[in-house]
Structures are given as C-alpha cells and as structure tokens.
Amino acid sequence: HKKGEHLILTGDFNTAHQPIDLKNAKENKNTSGFLPEEREWVDAYLRHGFVDAFRQLYPEKVQYTWWTTRLNARQRGIGWRLDYFLVSEALMSRVRDVVIHDGVMGSDHCPVELVLD
User: Fold this and answer.
1) Where does 2-90 show beta strands of DSSP type E?
2) pLDDT the model gives residue 26
3) Backbone dihedral region of 35: left (phi > 0), alpha (psi from -120 to 50 degrees) or beta?
4) For residue 45, what pLDDT is reported?
5) Which pLDDT value is given to residue 3?
6) Which of 12, 97, 102, 108 is catalytic?
7) What is 8-116's CATH number?
8) What residues pair up with 95 in beta bridges, in sequence order?
9) Are the CB atoms for 104 and 64 separated by under 8 Å?
C-alpha cells in the first residue's frame, strides 16, 4: 500500500501472532495457528506499514477472540486471539479503541470492534 493511505485489514487470521495471544503458547508451538511460518505471515504485514491495533493499544492485555468448543475451553479461559484489525500506520492515530466482546456467545469466536474518531 502507499504511505499515508488509510487501510484496514480485518478478520479471522487463524493465527495467534505472539505468545500473549494464546493461553498455552509452549504447548501449542507445533500447532496450526501458532506455527512460525504462520506468525511470520502476520510479521510481514507489520513490516510493511500495518499495525496490530489491539496490541498497540493494549501491549500487555490478555484477551481472546476464539475458544475451541471442546473441553469447556471458553469457561476455563483457554483461548486464542485470532481476530485482528491491522490498520495502516497513517490510520492508527484515528483509532480510539479496539473492543473484544468476549461475553457475547453464539459462536466459537466473539465479536471484535474497532472504534475510530
């Protein structure tokens, strides 16, 4: 993309980018969704002028957007952050919040919200 453009890439990336983005990083190091080559795919976007809006605003916050439907994972807090808003660096100054609505049921994912001014 061109420098200065306001772009948003959003959706289910099926990848937990950093260890903070899933409950059991060590146990899942060889699991699809946390493989080095999948994480590198997200890194490539970040190297090319995109920002993970949630992680930029909340560098230490542990919050998930997906839980397996097995083993009562959601109730036990065993989840992954797979849903992202990657925004162009030029747009990041207009991002006011990223809200993960983890209390909303009805799917194995929860809604995520990007708040812009």
Assistant:
1) 8-12, 50-52, 83-88
2) 96
3) beta
4) 97
5) 78
6) 12
7) 3.60.10.10
8) 116
9) no
Q: Is 12 a catalytic residue?
A: yes
Residue carrying structure tokens 């059991």: 24
Cα distance between residue 76 and residue 85, in whole Å:
26
Domain ranges of the chain: 8-116
3-class DSSP state of 31: coil
Look up residue 55 and give its two tokens: 């992680």
Closest CA to 31 of 52, 54, 55, 14: 14
Q: Is the Cβ–Cβ distance between 34 and 28 less than 8 Å?
A: yes
The stretches in the chain having pLDDT less than 70 are none
Tokens found for residue 51: 């920002």
Cα–Cα dist 116/96, whole Å: 5
Euclidean distance between CA atoms 30 and 43, whole angstroms: 18
What's the token pair of residue 24?
């059991």
